[in-house]
Amino acid sequence: MSAGSDYQRLRAHLAFLRMTAAAEALPALLDEATGARLSHSAFLERLLAIEVDAVDDRRRASLARFASLPSPFTLADFDFAAQPSVDPKLIAELATLRFVEDATNILFIGPPGVGKTMLAVGLGHAAVAAGMRTYYTTAAQLAARCQRAGPEGRVGATLGLLPRAPPLFIREVS
Fewer CB in a 10 Å sphere around the end CB: N or C, the chain? Predict the structure, then answer.
């Protein structure tokens, strides 16, 4: 067997397994492995790490799309100095997302403009970064969705999707 046919078979295997990132990185990584005299296991670990990172990036992008978060705000963007009534320690505790594991509900209450939505969106981004499936909607959007599903007999199915996306962020009617 020639090195060329081994290379082509390896590329074919990676393509069959849909390991596109590894297949794209293969030529450069083979050159690097040859130059650095990497062991077979070290080469394989680097190749697989590239694919794992690519799969993880795609997964997180998918989670972010599903979450439907309305803005890119994170908890780091929140100005605690502008809202002294918001306890930074409490928000830091919420950022651990332990409330999700404990199945605890969180309710942000306050007048308009104090940052309730920004905090909810920030927690949503934290959940996505942690690899959690989450969903953001408004109460009005949720009610409209259920109303559209009613005549089709799909209200149960519509509401059944919600528990599969903990944490669920529902903004009040504006």
Answer: N
